[in-house]
Amino acid sequence: xxxxxxxxxxxxxxxxxxxxxxxxxxxxxxxxxxxxxxxxxxxxxxxxxxxxxxxxxxxxxxxxxxxxxxxxxxxxxxxxxxxxxxxxxxxxxxxxxxxxxxxxxxxxxxxxxxxxxxxxxxxxxxxxxxxxxxxxxx
Length: 138
What we know:
Blueprint: H1 4-25, H2 40-43, H3 54-64, H4 66-69, H5 86-89, H6 93-102, H7 117-136
């Protein structure tokens, strides 16, 4: 016979599993959080890097972002926004930099403020490059 504490623990684990599974199974839209807005001063910043820094941005992206956002050869594994989408691509460079730096805990986007500033700008360059093949096809 199980102890009451063990029974309660098993029930708690079962409830947690059911709630977590149902939350993950919901078809949550993969859109940018409309309440997650960069301040005007952050959005106005321009990327100080030249396109020659793009290969470094790709490497950083593959190391830190690909698990959630995927890239042109990997499908996204969760409900993270499609970085090639018009909603993301219409954001100013400064706003993308701010999002990368600040993160958004409500939507499981970690802050990457631990990366040097130049690497965060390289990520912005790489995100911009994700839309180029679609635009070139028009």
